[in-house]
Amino acid sequence: MAANAKKYWSKDWAAYGSTGGTLYGAPLMASVKGFIWYSPKQFKDWGVEVPKTWDDLLALTKTIQEKTGKAPWCAGFGSDAATGWPGTDWVEDLVLRQSGAATYDKWVSHKIPFTDPAIKKAFDSVGDILLNPKYVNAGLGDVKSINATPFGDVARVVGNGTCAMTHQASFFDGFISDPRNGNATVGPDADVWAFLTPPIDASAGQAVTGGGEIVAAFSNDADTVKVQEYLSSPEWANSRVKLGGVISANNGLDPKNASSPILQQAIKVLQDPKTTFRFDASDLMPGVVGAGSFWTGMVDWVNGKSTDEVLKTIDASWPSK
Fold it and tell me: Is the dihedral of CA 80, 81, 83, 85 positive or negative?
């Protein structure tokens, strides 16, 4: 694909679709991860506000639990053969926010191991919420029920107000509004809204993780180049996003074309030059780790294995070459 297509890509996406300066893939759809979904009405009734820092989020969690006497959070790691992946998103968010982009990049490339203190710290910070029986699993069971709960089913208990908060990507909008899950509405003044997992330091810029789909070319002929150029263009991005349910990382995308307020917000996050963006770590790791031991490690962790034991097992699976 012609290298000038790079000019359309938001943030660091070019790094994931090029090699040696020659583009081989066109970015199609994207998602912003790390949204915390909640009920604006419930927050107002409880007299609480959207947190500005991670510590504020923990304090908010404690406050809601004390006010309601119920677990504030719900989570579902269930995803058939991919069970565990929603947990990796939690860890990735914390690695990026706590230790910064440089450490995140070293972790993805295995320049630092899973057993590094920064990764352990991220796991343990996530555990402050997900492994606390007072804090999960609202409307669904206990801590271990996280693994048995399909991630999409969480939308039902968030939408009906049984669960105060859950952590999921921008695409969760579609699950929330699905009639099979209760047909809740999403918006700042609607049934459900979302804020990004807050930074460690309120003065720090916004850092987010995200995912996406990239279509690769296996031929460099003129017709293929033209197709790839079109798929990388603002014209294609805007026309596809207008159809609903998705976003793109294309810089030429008009957020107004997105089908919901949260998707519009996600596009603005991706297009903000102040945003530090990193692609989903597990998607960038070797498959045996990112789509294997990391996923199963999250399941084992929820089931009671220690952080140290889980991290050692995941790291041992990293290919030697």
Answer: negative
CB 176 within 8 A of CB 37: yes
The DSSP 8-state label assigned to residue 85 in this structure reads H
Whole-angstrom Cα distance, residue 288 to residue 304? 22
What is the C-alpha separation between 256 and 35, in angstroms, rounded? 20
In the chain, the amino acid numbered 146 is: I
Q: What are phi and psi of 129, to 5 degrees?
A: -105, -60
The per-residue pLDDT for range 280-307, each reduced to its tens digit, is: 999 999 999 999 999 999 999 999 999 9
Helices (H), the chain: 40-46, 54-68, 85-108, 117-130, 145-148, 154-159, 172-177, 222-231, 234-242, 261-271, 281-284, 287-288, 294-302, 307-316
Helix (H) or strand (E) holding 207: strand 207-216
Q: What is the tens place of the pLDDT at every residue in 94-128?
A: 999 999 999 999 999 999 999 999 999 999 999 99
**Global pTM?**
0.91
Q: Do 309 and 84 contact (CB within 8 A), yes or no?
A: no
Distance CA 283, CA 147 (A): 20
Number of CB atoms found within 10 A of residue 101's CB: 14
CA distances from 286 to 12, 123, 146, 282 (A): 20, 20, 25, 8
244, 55 in Cβ contact below 8 A?
no
Nearest by Cα to 174 from 198, 151, 141, 207: 151
CA proximity to 108, closest of 251, 279, 250? 279
* pLDDT at 23 exceeding the cut of 70: no
Closest CA to 59 of 67, 86, 203: 67
